[in-house]
Amino acid sequence: MASSANTVDAGLQQLLQETILVTGHVADCAVIRRKDGAVRAGTSGFKVSDAEVEGIRESFRDPAYAREHVLRVGEQQFNCVRADESAIYAKNGKAGVVIGQTTQYFVLATYSPNMFASICAEAAESLAEFLRDKGK
After folding, report:
1. CA dihedral over 9, 34, 92, 23, signed as positive or negative
2. pTM for the full predicted model
């Protein structure tokens, strides 16, 4: 995980469980605070390094960067298929990652080849939208 203070937020952890993990189509997920890269909630053992968080930041700052560079998340490499100011979609074969951006957080969700990408994306985007609606 990012080296910043990674104190789990129980409320965010519960939201992950109730909105993302319950789908059965998310392999790993995390809510990462944008300002310092602190992992505020996530699946056990899912690690996102400081360098990976910086790559995510840069990809949201410049969507062209996301499409031109390999995105690393959780020690895996992904190629961007869509990037805009609110979400990044990237794939590695039949696996992938969806990253939503809110005012305060990045919401990351990965899926494996035996999972439905559309369900993972809907879950991650829904949580990001919920946090945006709450001003977070």
Report:
1. positive
2. 0.91
